[in-house]
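User: I'm new to structure prediction. If I give you an amino acid sequence, what do you actually give back? Let's try with this one:
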Amino acid sequence: MKYQKVEYNSKNIKIEIYRTIIFHVFLYGYETWLLTWREDCRLREFENRVLRRIFGPKRDEVKGVWRKLHNVELNDLYCSPNFVRMIKTRRMIWASHVARMGERRGVYRVLVRKSEGKRPLGRPRRRWEDNIKMDLQEVGCEGHGLDRAGSG
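Assistant: Good question. You get back a string of structure tokens that encode the predicted 3D arrangement of the chain. For your 152 residues, that looks like this:
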């Protein structure tokens, strides 16, 4: 039986810790999150901060000084989906799962039910359903059954 030689340098170990622990602990229950633009930016900032700590600074060949890695360089070094992309993908998967549920299931009823009572003054707050519709428009999959679930 042959054994594969595994490189155990600190960068690989840090990336594995990031993938297995930080990523999953940080995103616990994210299928139900309402992401605003500000939260979206904060998630990207957090992820880039962690990746900068893992990959460290880069020496500029022209000037000979150390500098932080740019976001594009971080994305090239770490070739996995970012937090926001993962949240949007999993949220659409969860929404399609709920849309396929029957009308007798509680989760389905909560998703399609209209709230009762008076609305508060001001601009309506963004709902989870609105986020799903925006995600579908971003991907280009409008009208694939999720909007029909809300009308029935």
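You can read the tokens as a compact description of the fold. Here is one thing that stands out. The chain has seven helices and two strands.
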